[in-house]
What we know:
This protein is of the alpha/beta class.
Amino acid sequence: MDKDKKIKVLYFAGSGRSGSTILNIILGNHPHIFGGGELQNMGQVYNANKICSCQSPLIHCEFWSSVVNDWSSKIEEDNITSGFKKWSEVEGVFSIKSWVKMYFGIGKKDAQFKEYLKSTSEFLRSVQQHSKKKVLVDISKNPLRAWALEENPDIDLRMVHLVRDGRAVTWSLKRTAERQNRKRPTWRAAMFWALINRMTNLVRSKVEHRTLVRYEDFIENPGLVLNQIGEMAEIDFTDIINNIDKNDDFRIDHVMAGNGIRKADTIKFETTKTDGWIKKLNSRSKNIFKILSYSSLKKFNYR
Ligand SMILES: [Zn+2]
């Protein structure tokens, strides 16, 4: 397919709690970019009364309901739910079967996989048409979805492996669990963080246009990191960098899933402290994390 006709997707892969929602909002203020959120979760949230950042339930949101109706009219499916289910069959990040199939290229000529590719491209094309933006940001994070997008002849994938210190991720997961009266053991968070980043490393090696970004570096020097992403994605971020320098407001599009900050009207890029966990995470948890994920921490230059 002609490169210009392909849908350019700027995809963020890696662990959750890594700051992708903020990046999604900031990049979505570029005149050619639409930042829709975690697009892989559309199937889960669409019929579940989940709220879009515009405050409407997704099924009533003017934007997403038009996108989904348009998409479902173009795929041969009985209903929306079964259409989305096909995505999760290919993209199941914790399914060994899905990884084996992708790794060895099994079933790539099957009708089922072709249908999956078509369904994904029709959905993204619908987002492109309704948003009237050329480039789509997808912060699904799932590395297997990134791999499937790379295999899709209609997609021009630009992949950012976004990583944040796993101890900050652990602290964030623990805090949420606490609020819901659950427990999130450190060992589980550490294993999850190391595993998902290893999976993302593997996929990164299979993708042509890709870059590795640390969230802490983005907060420290947003201009440098945005230029790095821009160079890889062939997008000029000068205006966005100027907006950050001027401490402008960033408006929020119809973001369908992700961090709660998306529910504000606008956000500012604040040099939010990224090291709050250092004081809050207890030393036992820090030690457990270091023992279990030492090599991954080192690999991403975390001490
Ligand atoms: Zn909306």
